[in-house]
Design a protein that fits this description.
about 280 residues; single chain; 2 domains; OB fold (Dihydrolipoamide Acetyltransferase, E2P); Rossmann fold; 15 strands; five-stranded antiparallel beta sheet; alpha/beta; five-stranded parallel beta sheet; about 25% helix
């Protein structure tokens, strides 16, 4: 029996300059002829909508676009819920992997060290064939790692840290102000909970549960908003529905299905790591 050929990778291009989209499309056709460009966006909001509709393997995002910047669009793309028919938010199971992100920029000051570490990649305008070929080779390897179920497909791990770095470069005058307190409902009362005391946040339908060693509370703020308001060095996203305090991680094990499970200091709950974020604990 013949083994079916793997599906051709699919991509969305986003750039507010039509000529730049055309040039990148032409260059990609030269260095990656099997790549399918399924849609093109003219701004950040349109990029998020097209990614939600098509669920591509790769997204090429211009860093500076009207409406939403490429960084802001990438943040929203990283928080898109699973498609209908996939595991629901917060449920066990492999939710959709995040697409590979490639930023397009005319300014090489955005080519920070994190790009070279494989969290995401970048292409300088105008796209040169040789540099684009390097990007393509990196993405090919990561897509192959995904297909094999390897933990070496790091689209999700540390992506938020990179996005915070890029956001700071786009707005150099304003240092990020992260949440210090959480105002939450505990029983019939409202309490102010220091962020440092939170072990983890986990979505619970309309609410997000805030868990400390002593208190379980509820807030209406979704995970996708908390991701931008919390220090990414202190809180790691390990699932679309879960943020965990790095200092509260007691260890990581694998269950009988090979999935990574985080043990939390001072609390019996076990937190599942979805495939998009397994690279956070690479080698375990």
């Amino acid at each position: 029996m013949n083994t079916p050929a793997p599906a051709a990778p699919r991509a969305v291009l986003a750039d507010d300059e039509r000529l730049m989209r055309e040039q990148l499309r032409a260059r990609l056709a030269e260095v990656w002829p099997e790549l399918q460009i399924v849609a093109e966006a003219r701004n950040g909001l349109e990029a998020v909508q097209l990614v939600d509709r098509h669920r591509p393997d790769i997204v090429f995002l211009d860093i500076r676009m009207p409406g939403l910047t490429g960084v802001e669009a990438a943040r929203q793309i990283a928080q898109l819920p699973p498609r209908e028919g996939d595991a629901p938010e917060g449920a066990a199971g492999d939710d959709d992997l995040l697409p590979e992100i490639v930023f397009i920029t005319a300014y090489d000051e955005y080519a920070v060290e994190a790009f070279e570490q494989g969290v995401a990649d970048y292409v300088l305008k105008p796209a040169e064939r040789e540099r684009l070929a390097v990007t393509v080779e990196r993405i090919r390897k990561r897509l192959a790692a995904r297909a094999s179920g390897s933990d070496d497909a790091p689209a999700g791990p540390h992506l938020q840290q990179l996005l915070h770095q890029l956001a700071a470069r786009l707005n150099p005058g304003g240092a990020p102000q992260y949440l210090q307190w959480i105002q939450a409902t505990v029983g019939q009362s409202i309490q102010m909970i220091p962020v440092d005391e939170v072990l983890f946040f986990i979505s619970d339908e309309k609410y997000t549960r805030v868990q400390t060693a002593q208190v379980e509370a509820l807030i209406r703020k979704p995970i996708k908003e908390l991701v931008d308001e919390l220090d990414p060095r202190q809180f790691w996203q390990i699932h679309r529905s879960t943020l965990v305090n790095v200092k509260a991680i007691a260890g990581v094990t694998r269950d009988f299905r090979g999935r990574q499970i985080v043990a939390v200091k001072g609390h019996p709950e076990k937190l599942e790591v979805s495939r998009s974020y397994t690279g956070l604990f690479k080698g375990m």
